[in-house]
Amino acid sequence: MDIIVLRQDASEEEIRHVIKKLESRGLKSNISKGTERIVIGVIGDTAKVTEEEEDAFRAIPAVESVVRILKPYKLASREFRKENTVINVRGNIIGGKKIPVMAGPCAVEDETVLMNIAREVKKAGATFLRGGAYKPRTSPYSFQGLGKEGLRYLADAREKTGLPIITEIMDPRDLDAIMEYADIIQIGARNMQNFRLLLEVGAVNKPVMLKRGLSATIKEWLMSAEYIMSRGNQEVILCERGIRTFETATRNTLDLSAVPVLKKLTHLPVAVDPSHGVGKLELVAPMTKAAIAAGADAIIIEVHTNPEEALSDGEQSLKPDMFADLMLELKRVAEAVDREI
Ligand code: PEP
Ligand code: MN
Questions:
Q1: pTM tops 0.90, yes or no
Q2: Which domain holds residue 295?
C-alpha cells in the first residue's frame, strides 16, 4: 500500500482519521491536495502492510482507493501527483508556462566581478543569479570557492538586482549558512547520491535543485529526489547536466531525452544545464534552444564577464553580450512550443 486516494470532498476530520490509522501502524503520511483528488502518500515500510490491513483502509468511507506503486519512488511519481509541481521563489514561478533562466558565474570569485555579472544577466532578462560559494573541484589544488564570504556577496547582488540566488551545498555543516542566504539550494552532480546530505536538505523549508549524477540513471536520480521528499521537502527541481559516455567531443553528453522521459514519470519541474552538459562555449546556445524545445521548465547557464580569467569553467561560460543575444533567440523558441521566457 503506497498511496491512499481520498474523495475530493473528504473532511479534515476524515483525513486526520486516515493519518492516525497509518500512524498506529508505524507509518507516516504525506498529503497532496490536487484539483480532482486528495492523495495520501504512505511513508515507511509499506511492503509489510498485509492485504487485510489494506482492506481495512478501503473500508473507510472517505477512501476511494488504495494503490500500490511498483516504482521504487512514489512521492516523486506522476501516479502520486498528476498535476505539475509549481514552485514559487520570491514570486518567480518554476514549473509554469514561463521558463526561468538562472545565470551567473560557475564560482563566486570576487565581490565586484559578481556584481557586474549579476547586473548584466539581469539586464538580459535572467530571473535568478547562480554562483557557487562551495565548489566541488576535481583537484584539491583548484579554487575551492569563497565559502561564507561568497554567500554574502551573492546576497548583496540579490539586494542590488532583485535576482533570487541559487547556490550549491556540499556539506551538511554548511546548511545553516546556506539557509541564511540561498533561495534555492543546489545539490551538485557529484553529490546526487550523498544520501545523508539529501536527507538534510529534505528536512528544510527551501527548494532544492538536484542535479543528475555523472553516471546516474533516471531511476536512480528519481530515487535521490525521493530521499529529499521522504523527509518532507516537496520542492525539488531536477536538473539534467549531462552524463559520462564514451564521447569526448563534448565535456559530457547532454541527455535531452531525459526531459520528456521525466515529464512522464514525475510531476517535478525539470531544468537543463547546457553549460556543464557540453563544456564548450560554442555549443551552449544550440543546446539551450534544444532544451527549451524538449520541454525544459528552467535553464541554468554559466555567464562570466571575463571567461578567460575565470577561476572555474571559463571555457563554457558565455560573455554577457552572447548571453543577451541568446536570450532573444530563446524567446522565439519558447513561443514556438507555447512557453515564455
Ligand atoms: C556547477 O553548477 O557549477 C556544478 C559544479 O555543476 P555539476 O554539479 O553539474 O557539475
Ligand atoms: Mn561550473
A1: yes
A2: 87-336
